[in-house]
């Protein structure tokens, strides 16, 4: 017997599994779980129920409790391991070392009374070892195929090391760039957000829950988190039902339709009711209206937070109200008090029923059964090593970064650079050679040594024929308040870095004077975005603006690469070229060099309106027409009301023309789909990508509708001179919306305008009528 078979035997002889199999009466079910076929719902339920029948209330409460396991805190690690060994934890998060995952799983499967394997969850947001561009970047590719591929790789790496569940994708629509978690989502638009949501769920999960090499996907944070007032993380959210249904809930619906196995509830209150105790959201919408069949987990400590919010009366009450709202598993607060631990006493006191507790336990056990954990609980450490080193994963990361970049400005064809025409380049900026910043936030297992920075990418691309000088120019400022994610030492180290930048700015300027072109990599350090990282400004942090202006003043061609997730305000500075490279990931530098030197042409488009300054936010492109529409651009005394760059905007090294917009039918009945087509021609001399975008505007109806709404898009690669006809279908769903007056989705008999082009300001238009 090979050691692998031995492990399998051990797992299969577990008492829990034997009991479950007897109850379900099907041995073939067990082989299906590992043979690449989904198990039937009946089998899964029978196996779960057979286990539930043997569980004590304490074991049930434990099964639906998830603990943080911080291996860097020995006391906490011991507390968690003790809980788990006593069957008081069904899931752990943050364990990521494959050997540790395996060790803990051995304890669960071999030492606990019912031998139920642990479900390991983790923040696999944009890669595990191979780091993909951040999610907002992938959204900017306007290519759901990229999103799916990136998360397929992330899932493969996660599963190989023993992780079963990714807390992703983040589906929070974000219309306020002060909010640092903008980086984790797909931007401001529900249609683009829904396409990215479904693609990511498919990438994580494969074709069914339990697909080999895949993990459960847990879309988050349900729901409305991105609308926190003032862009302040965790702050309250007040959204009309119309905004919820038509904007904020849409990507979640798409994720549920794509089969997401889990949903994470959000921290904050929505219209006064905390999301984690919100029965309307978690039960009425999610389960009853959408038919969600997976399990709901709280965000970390969010059940206990029902107390913090002044909603629950006690920790015990918090557990009861979260469970009864529709939460199935509590992600317990790190180092803190679990609310679900108190469920057995609430059961004894008659505050919850056995059926309520069992429903939650069943959903968690079903996830474990579908994932095949009873059959294959352990980690193959050798295979994990091979998967993490797979060079194909780096290729996906490079391709994703190339497709994500958005070219915002390119005066006189400053880009692409010509290697032959250049003798020297200076690369300037605090982010130009920072491996840690290049991969962005929400990464823990990357290898900084294998991350290609922009400086390294440029050097490798130009070889020895071109002199490459480098100056960081300035340092990035430290946080003014210590973040909960920073240790005292990290915070102090950040403060200590605050140095006088003047000499380095002068050096950078001198280097620029000597170079043929200056490439500046400016933006925000990765610590300035992500969770608990709101900013009250869109300015370049530190003295970067001064650095930029000083380099531009040399008169040398200046290319600015923005490494950021926010639409930063560069105060009207006019570099020759401006490209948003986001946080491009492990292969970022290689991808950026390929873009700079024209091996590939940029084809990404903005997933949000780029405001002129922070005073304009929120500034969604899909706003309503209001009083005095002709003066809409004059609303501010001191500023135009338009964005600097509109949603959907992005340049290419080639040029494109849209023509021949055809709306198949001038008049359709309600409920009938409308085919629309448009011709896209590459009018330049390079093979390049363009994104054909389709927008609608409903002229009148039960409610007022936005001036434009994205309803279709397709990214195309066209040869010079090539024309392609892009075909869209406007479905009845695309023409429907949730109306406050009827409290339902409606499709009006009305007239629609249709626009097609390469941004939300597309001029080519048509129209059609929907009749009763
Ligand atoms: C809190 C964050 O809001 C959530 O997105 C994350 O998945 C959990 N912490 C676990 O790290």
Question: In terms of topology, how is this protein built?
Answer:
Blueprint: H1 3-12, H2 15-24, H3 27-32, H4 41-52, H5 57-63, E1 65-68, H6 74-85, E2 91-93, H7 98-111, E3 119-122, H8 135-140, H9 144-161, E4 165-166, H10 190-205, E5 216-217, H11 241-248, H12 250-257, E6 262-264, E7 269-270, E8 273-274, H13 279-289, E9 295-297, H14 305-308, H15 315-325, E10 330-331, H16 343-348, H17 354-370, H18 381-388, H19 391-404, E11 406-410, E12 424-428, H20 435-438, H21 454-462, E13 467-471, H22 488-496, H23 502-514, E14 517-523, H24 544-552, E15 558-563, E16 577-580, H25 588-596, E17 656-663, E18 667-669, E19 674-682, E20 688-698, E21 709-718, E22 723-730, E23 737-739, E24 744-746, E25 751-757, E26 764-771
Parallel strand pairs: 1-2, 1-10, 2-3, 3-4, 4-5, 6-9, 12-13, 12-14, 14-15, 15-16, 18-26
Antiparallel strand pairs: 7-8, 11-16, 17-19, 19-22, 20-21, 20-25, 23-24, 25-26
Helix pairs in contact: 2-4, 4-17, 5-17, 9-10, 9-18, 9-19, 10-12, 19-25, 21-25
Bound molecules: 1-deoxynojirimycin (NOJ).
1-deoxynojirimycin binds next to loops.
């Amino acid at each position: 017997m090979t050691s692998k078979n031995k492990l399998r035997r051990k797992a299969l002889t577990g008492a829990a599994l034997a009991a479950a199999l007897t109850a379900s009466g099907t041995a073939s079910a067990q082989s299906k779980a590992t043979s690449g076929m989904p198990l039937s719902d009946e089998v899964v339920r029978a196996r779960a129920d057979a286990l539930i029948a043997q569980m004590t209330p304490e074991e049930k409460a434990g099964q639906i409790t998830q603990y943080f396991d911080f291996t860097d805190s020995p006391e906490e690690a011991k507390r968690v391991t003790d809980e788990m060994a006593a069957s008081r934890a069904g899931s752990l998060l943050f364990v990521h070392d494959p050997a540790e995952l395996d060790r803990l799983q051995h304890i669960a499967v071999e030492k606990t009374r019912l031998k139920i394997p642990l479900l390991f969850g983790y923040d696999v947001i944009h890669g595990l070892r191979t780091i993909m561009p951040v999610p907002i970047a992938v959204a900017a590719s306007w290519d759901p195929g990229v999103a799916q591929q990136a998360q397929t790789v992330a899932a493969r790496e996660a599963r190989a090391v023993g992780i079963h569940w990714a807390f992703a994708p983040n589906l929070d629509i974000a219309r306020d760039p002060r909010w640092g978690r903008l980086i984790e989502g797909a931007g401001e638009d529900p249609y683009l957000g829904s396409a990215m949501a479904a693609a990511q769920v498919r990438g994580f999960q494969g074709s069914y829950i339990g697909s080999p090499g895949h993990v459960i996907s847990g879309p988050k944070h349900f729901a409305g988190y991105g609308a926190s007032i003032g862009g302040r993380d965790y702050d309250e959210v007040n959204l009309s039902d119309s905004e919820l249904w038509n904007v904020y809930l849409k990507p979640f619906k798409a994720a549920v339709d794509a089969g997401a196995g889990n949903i994470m509830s959000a921290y904050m209150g929505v219209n006064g009711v905390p999301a984690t105790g919100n029965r309307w959201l978690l039960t009425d919408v999610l389960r009853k209206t959408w038919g969600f069949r997976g399990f709901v987990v709280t965000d970390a400590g969010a059940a206990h937070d029902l107390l913090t919010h002044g909603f629950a009366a006690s920790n015990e009450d918090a557990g009861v109200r979260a469970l009864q709202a529709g939460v199935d598993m509590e992600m317990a607060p790190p180092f803190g008090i679990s609310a679900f631990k108190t469920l057995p006493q609430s059961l004894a006191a008659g505050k919850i029923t056995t059926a309520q507790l069992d429903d939650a336990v069943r959903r968690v056990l079903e996830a474990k059964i579908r994932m095949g954990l009873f059959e294959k609980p352990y980690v193959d450490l050798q295979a994990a090593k091979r998967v993490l080193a797979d060079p194909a994963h780096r290729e996906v990361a490079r391709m994703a970064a190339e497709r994500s970049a958005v070219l915002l400005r390119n005066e006189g064809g400053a880009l692409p650079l010509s290697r032959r025409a250049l003798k020297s380049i200076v690369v300037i900026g605090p982010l130009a050679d920072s491996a840690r910043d290049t991969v962005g936030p929400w990464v823990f297992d990357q290898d900084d040594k294998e991350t290609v920075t922009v400086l390294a990418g440029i050097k490798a691309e130009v070889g020895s024929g071109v002199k490459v000088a480098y100056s960081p120019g300035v340092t990035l400022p430290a946080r003014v308040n210590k973040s909960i994610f920073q240790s005292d030492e990290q915070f102090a180290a950040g403060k200590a870095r605050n140095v006088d930048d003047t000499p380095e700015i002068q050096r950078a300027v001198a280097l620029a004077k000597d170079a043929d072109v200056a490439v500046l990599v400016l933006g925000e350090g990765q610590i300035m975005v992500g969770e608990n990282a709101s900013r009250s400004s869109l300015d370049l942090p530190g003295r970067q603006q001064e650095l930029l202006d000083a380099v531009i003043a040399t008169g040398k061609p200046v290319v600015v690469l923005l490494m950021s997730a926010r639409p930063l305000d560069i105060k009207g500075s006019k570099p020759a070229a401006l490209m948003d490279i986001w946080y491009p990931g492990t292969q970022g530098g290689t991808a950026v060099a390929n873009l700079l030197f024209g091996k590939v042409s940029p084809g990404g488009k903005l997933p949000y309106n780029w405001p002129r300054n922070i005073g304009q936010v929120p500034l969604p492109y899909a706003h309503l027409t209001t009083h005095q529409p002709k003066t809409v651009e004059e609303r501010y005394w001191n500023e135009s009301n338009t964005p600097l760059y509109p949603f959907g905007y992005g340049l290419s090294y080639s040029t494109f023309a849209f023509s021949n917009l055809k709306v198949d039918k001038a008049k359709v009945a309600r409920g009938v789909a409308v085919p629309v087509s448009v011709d896209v021609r590459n009018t330049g001399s390079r093979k390049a990508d363009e994104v054909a975008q389709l927008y609608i505007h409903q002229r009148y109806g039960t409610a007022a509708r936005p001036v434009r709404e994205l309803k279709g898009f397709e990214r195309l690669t066209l040869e010079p001179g090539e024309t392609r006809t892009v075909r869209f279908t406007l479905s009845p769903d695309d023409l429907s919306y949730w109306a406050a007056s009827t409290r339902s989705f409606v499709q009006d008999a009305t007239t629609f305008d249709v626009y097609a082009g390469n941004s939300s300001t597309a001029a080519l238009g048509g129209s059609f009528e929907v009749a009763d």
